[in-house]
Amino acid sequence: MSRGSMAPFVLGRDLARAFYHEVLRGIVGASPHAVALLGEGSDVLGFDTVRSTDHAWGPRAQIFVEAADVADLRQRLERDLPTDFRGWPVRFYRWQTGRVEHHVEVTTVGEWLQANLGRDPRPAMPLNAWLSTPRQLLLEVTGGLVFHDDTGALTRVRALLAWYPQDVWLWIMAAHWSRLATLETFIGRTAELGDDLGARLVLAASVIPAQRRTAILSSSKVTCYQRTACMSERGDDGWQPGCPCMIVDNYAAA
Are 121 and 184 in a shared domain? Predict the structure, then answer.
């Protein structure tokens, strides 16, 4: 399909939701399953734009089933998926494999967590795991949308990882401010010595960690600031689970 014939842009998460309800649900059938848009990508957080469509963007989702159902469902998807959906090709380039293929991942909740988070945190995430797991990986589990969840297993693990335990959160914030404290005095000291460039560099080193409290994805910083401002004006509680901007803030404050 030529680029000029593609349909008007919609957010990837909206395309994925429609893709599930109009296509994937019929292929999966009555088997217990969960379907979501998780993992990496600006479309997971709703930050994608028309520019996003030029690199690995299109109808996609993760389908979570029991281990015994994985192989059969994969075969049915290969056979029954349409060529395109709402004007967008269903099979497109996947940079991880270097091939053109569909982007519907079929797996179990446990296998997906092991592959993407590095561990299955159920029934509880140990403290050393909270401290050693990159916040970007936590975001990739908690930051997307779940369109269907028969057993509730996926929903429960996302709730488990939705926020740091209080003692871990206090340690992270203390470490964050301790780092800033070691830098801030040198802004004035370098300026006193007439080292304007040095003062600017120390200031930048102080500001960048603070910026990470607001955004992980650099291409999404402005959008994240704007969404925070809009919520403040409306009086919304910006810490409610499910808000992409605040999820970014949750796991970028370290």
Answer: no
